[in-house]
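A reminder from the course coordinator: this example appears on the midterm review sheet, so study it carefully.

Given structure:
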C-alpha cells in the first residue's frame, strides 16, 4: 500500500464519524448538543457504570460550553464526589421528567459527597459558575436529548 493511500485511509477514518453526525468525546463517549437555560452546550453522555464512575476525573479542564450528563436507570437520591477531579463543577440533579430538583457546587479534589437531596435520574456536571450563567434554578425543566432518554431505558 502506497504512502498516499495510507494517508487517505487515515483521513477518511477521521472524517467518517463526523459525516454521520455521530460525535464522540476524547473519552469515547457520545456528545449531544443540549440547551441548559440560556446556554447551548456540548454534553458528553455517561450512561454506563464505567463512564459514570470515571466522570471528569483526570482531566485538567473542560471548555466553557461543555459538560457531562450522567444517565441512571431510575430515580433515587444520588451522591457525587470530586475524587481526582482537578477543577470545580456545578451539578444539576434532574428527575425522570427533566425537572431540576437541586443544584450543587463541588470543589476540586473534594472527597465529601454532594447529595441530590431528592430522587434524581439524571445529573449534569458543568464548569463552576455555569449554572448561574445559564440562569437555571430549582424547578426549571431541561429538555433531555433523546439519546439520554433511550440510555435510561437500557
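Designed residues:
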Amino acid at each position: 500500500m502506497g504512502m498516499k493511500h495510507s494517508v487517505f485511509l487515515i483521513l477518511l477514518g477521521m472524517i467518517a464519524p463526523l459525516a454521520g453526525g455521530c460525535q464522540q468525546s476524547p473519552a469515547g463517549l457520545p456528545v449531544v448538543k443540549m440547551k441548559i437555560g440560556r446556554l447551548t452546550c456540548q454534553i458528553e453522555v455517561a450512561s454506563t457504570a464505567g463512564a459514570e464512575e470515571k466522570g471528569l476525573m483526570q482531566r485538567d479542564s473542560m471548555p466553557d460550553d461543555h459538560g457531562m450528563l450522567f444517565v441512571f436507570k431510575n430515580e433515587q437520591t444520588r451522591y457525587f464526589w470530586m475524587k481526582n477531579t482537578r477543577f470545580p463543577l456545578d451539578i444539576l440533579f434532574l428527575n425522570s421528567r427533566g425537572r431540576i430538583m437541586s443544584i450543587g457546587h463541588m470543589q476540586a479534589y473534594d472527597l465529601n459527597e454532594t447529595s441530590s437531596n431528592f430522587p434524581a435520574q439524571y445529573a449534569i456536571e458543568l464548569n463552576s459558575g455555569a449554572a448561574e450563567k445559564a440562569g437555571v434554578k430549582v424547578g426549571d425543566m431541561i429538555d433531555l436529548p433523546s439519546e439520554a432518554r433511550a440510555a435510561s431505558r437500557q
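The domain at 23-152 is CATH 2.60.120.1140 (Jelly Rolls). The helical segments are 3-19, 49-54, 130-134, 146-152.
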